[in-house]
Amino acid sequence: MTSNGDIDISQLSPDQQSVLEQYTQVTAQDIKDAVPLLERSQWNVQIAIAKFFDGEGPDPVAEAVAAQDHIPRQAARHENLQESFEMAPRPGRLPRARPDPAPRIVPQPQTTHRPPFLLAILFAPFNFGYRAFSTFFRTFMYIFAFLPPSIRPRAITTNMTRGWKGTMGRRMLMPRDTAARFKREFEEEYGNNSMPFYEGGFAQALDLAKKELKFLLIVLMSPEHDDTESFTRETLLSPEIIAFVNDPANNIIVWGGNVLDSEAYQVAAEYNCTKYPFSCLVCLTPKEGSTRMSIVKRLAGPLSPSNYLAEIQTAIHKYAPDLAAVRAERSAQEVARSLRTEQDSAYERSLARDRERARQRREAEAAKVLAEKKAREEAEAAEHRARQCEQWRRWRTTTISPEPDAKADPKDIVRLALKMPDGASSAGRVIRKFASETTVEELYAFVECYDLLQNSEEADEEKAADKPEGYEHQYKFRIVSPMPRVVYEPDETATLGDKIGRSGNLIVEEIIPDDEESDDEIVDEKSPLAAGA
User: Fold this and answer.
1) Which CATH architecture has domain 401-445+466-532?
2) Strand 252-258 vs strand 215-221: parallel, antiparallel, or unpaired?
3) Nearest 5°: phi and psi at 487?
4) What is the pTM of this model?
5) Which of 488, 493, 462 is nearest to 475 (CA)?
């Protein structure tokens, strides 16, 4: 049995131990802290890792549980004893009929098919006679249209109601334009009103009602019907009907149409409209299938406002609980979908941050390796240059001319007093004679190799040293004359006799690099003297 603190790992299930192992491999967190975090995350390793790196904010699992607890439930449907008795199957009695399906009507454009040319010639007389008869019949219909409805022939009224005028000059438009024309004509006929007619085609209104789980109230009118005007003014535009359909709590979409239009005429035919004015209530019926729109109420003929409103309210109260249940289910699905999306998004963000940290860690490691390699190469280069410098000094010591003896002509001798840098000579001052033909560069070499020249035996041993190939020595000092100040550069052509004369007092100054000089200035600024100044 393996334990860590108060956590007994052996009491965990194999799946939990596997999740714990995955979590600790990624986060390297102690087991005593990892187990409580996994328990708060319902042993979901992805959520736990996100909490570890991002901090524990609102718990997604707790939010999901709370959201499921607050999902609206389907409202209970209450039926009285009479309704239950009527709905219950009886021996020898047919089951209750289901609501009729509500078809989706899409108006089809009218197309004209031309017959072959030969047939057109053969049937030209018949076509001419048909057109003449149709023109005469239309004229006859127009004449009788001006007669009062009481003395107008019944057959003519029926034919006009059925849509004869739909083929007599009423141009077919797109569904949205047809709806706009119907609303404009309705307002011109009955004045400005608050009836919220849907400004679109019937198919779009049906799809909207199905999508938003609302009731679709279909109102079909025939301008030539005797009861149309009274029904519209007294019933449809009554204050109680207007207030009811405009109430958002009732979830009603109103679509109206003139049967003289092709779309409304097709709707009337498909919905078995036998009497005008005609109203129909359509909604989704979950009991019959979640994707089926059904006709739940038909209202044909003139009705009083109270009866019309009572019939619509009865149908809405019957099917509203079913629609509320579907809305609750969709809301729960949307909450779950949103929760999954947020969890996936949080997990993706966590993975992105992990990838970014890994990339930064790799770049830091690569930069560190590169810096170490560069420092190592610079150190090797400096060490190699130091060896070449030392080899050059041993070689140059063998090439420096010896000091002239006392027998030499004084005119050919230059006597110099050199103040060496600190540490270069124990005395700090070197006096030596040089031949007047000695170059200034050889004077620099003398100063550079002065410590090797002190020991003649070591100098003799260094005679075998060779000049390093590809090496150019750079002097880190300069030789100057103090009064007046003159800097003598290491020239291989200029001689001491020409530049200095027969004698001189010279100072050897070290050349300080720019970076070291800036550091010295910073130190000087921080010194007590600088502070006192």
Assistant:
1) Roll (3.10)
2) parallel
3) -95, 125
4) 0.46
5) 488
